[in-house]
Amino acid sequence: MSEQDHKETIYDWIGGAETLRRIVETFYPKVQIDPLLSPLFPEDILPVMEKQYLFLTQFLGGPSLYSDQYGHPMMRARHMPFPITNAHAQAWLNCMEQALVEVGLPKDLREIMIQRLSAPANHFVNTN
Ligand code: HEM
Prior knowledge:
By secondary structure, the protein is an all-alpha fold. Helices cover about 65% and strands about 0% of the residues.
């Protein structure tokens, strides 16, 4: 067994695949009614949800599900077609925080998750 097998990850702390599914399923309905975010997303949100589940799995230290299927994530590039401001990043993180509360994640894990997700959210800002 390699050292990797013993590594503790955010993915494990939150409860792995099952919790992450619930987070994604709780998050996107919020995105879809957010006045800033909803216009950016397609009506058929299911494919986005599935990709987000695959991506967050690996982003939080779980198996590399997204890259196995889609190759290098290049997430900033994938977000470039959409005008993303600081306000969008904040709205995205707010929807996520609400979703984490709803799935019952304890405060310490919510803070770790939001801190971890703030970096990419701010990095995806591409316009004023
Ligand atoms: C900063 C605010 C953000 C906005 C406004 C935003 C918006 C979007 C939009 C419009 C799409 C494309 C939906 C489509 O397929 O038409 C998308 C895709 C995606 N976003 Fe975001 N996003 C944000 C932050 C994030 C963050 C922080 C993450 C993960 C850490 C993330 C992960 C993804 C993933 C995995 C996809 C699917 C990529 C693919 O097509 O393979 N996004 N996002």
